[in-house]
Amino acid sequence: MAGELAKEETAVTKVKVLKKTNVKPQKPLGKKECQLVTFDLPYLAFYYNQKLMIYKGVENFEENVENLKDGLGLVLEDFYQLAGKLGKDEEGVFKVEYDDDMDGVEVIVATAEGIEVADLTDEEGTSKFQDLIPCNKILNLEGLHRPLLAVQFTKLKDGITMGLAFNHAVLDGTSTWHFMNSWAQLCCGSTSISVPPFLDRTKVRNTRVKLNLSKPSDAPEHANSATTNGDVTANTDPYLRERVFKFSESAIDQIKSKVNANASGSSTPYSTFQSLSAHVWLAVTRARQLKPEDYTVYTVFADCRKRVDPPMPESYFGNLIQAIFTVTAAGLLLSHPIEFAAGMIQDAIVKHDAKTIDERNKEWESSPKIFQYKDAGVNCVAVGSSPRFKVYDVDFGWGKPESVRSGSNNRFDGMVYLYPEKNGGRGIDVEISLEANAMERLEKDKEFLMEA
């Protein structure tokens, strides 16, 4: 079979790669292109965005893989940009290019029958995911010559994992889960997806930003570690730990009630997100044992689809997020009650309106800066993902995922991913990356754990 590789065995998780193939849209689409806009470009020096879907009790692996590939070919007829590559025009303006001669999405089929689902669903660490997800430490800029989406299906002893690597310069979390749920729809027998993607990015921003970037070494801090199968081995920082903290509906309600109990009557009640954000920010700041004068930053990557003027539909495909920063001194934060933190976060979010977004865009366009994934701020807590994303609705016909996690890319001290709880309630899973000593203190913080 074309593209078939010799079986390989990696040391970390005993994953054997059986073959690599490519999947393209099932019908010819011709040549298409779409300019990347101001909301997309800052992420060129981030790494590919990695997700791991873990499913239990899935049988008939080979048959299911073929069904997944068939569904992928169908969904790419609408989401064809993911089957393309990054390109640049003669003026240095980045774009997504697609034509029928391109390779399409990379699909890796692997087996790891010595691994059980339970080995992957504990709440600690991401290093064990490394060989289950493609594109470790691959910069989005490399989409000039790499697929914009790579997928790995791995057979476990009692289930299957789906490792996904999306080029973050092409899409954000809202678009990611729109794509995933559309793909699952088709695999379950739908003849068309319920909500097609809105693909014209220039409707939200039509400024042609020229960037003089052409290869990974042009981007800051390019990882140049030894590679395995063409992927850079993940920089597993021995001083960084990752942990999932599960907050039940009851715990979320307690946090929200506490934050709103002493809020002034004239203020807008604090939302679940604002309340949980304040709770996490305070706890991480305590755990870091910062000096009173040290600054700490809370960063939210906010969805701007309904904030821009005119508003964009939820189905807008691309990046339509901006970072919102809240900064204060650690001593000031910790010496006030929790509603002080919630108030600052709420104020920053409310003020991030269409005018502010437009001003931020114009400022960036006048002097473009390609961010590194660590640029969220000093002593930061930076929130990605959202408990609103319907990650546990991604059912390919075998039921809901047992667990959904982020990979090791784009992690730094203070990175937080929020996911809904698995059972469909209002609980929230908080996945935190933190310096090891601070993490140890956070794990013992009874106030944070709601054990006080």
From TrEMBL:
Keyword Ribonucleoprotein: no
Gene Ontology molecular function, alphabetical: acyltransferase activity
InterPro entries, sorted: CAT-like_dom_sf (IPR023213), Sec_Metabolite_Acyltrans (IPR051283)
Top-rank taxon: Eukaryota
Bias-annotated ranges (Polar residues): 224-233
Keyword Metal-binding: no
Keyword vocabulary terms for this entry: Acyltransferase, Transferase
One Pfam family hit: Transferase
UniProt-annotated stretches for the region Disordered: 212-233
Record-stated family: Belongs to the plant acyltransferase family.
Protein name: BAHD acyltransferase DCR
UniProt lineage: Eukaryota, Viridiplantae, Streptophyta, Embryophyta, Tracheophyta
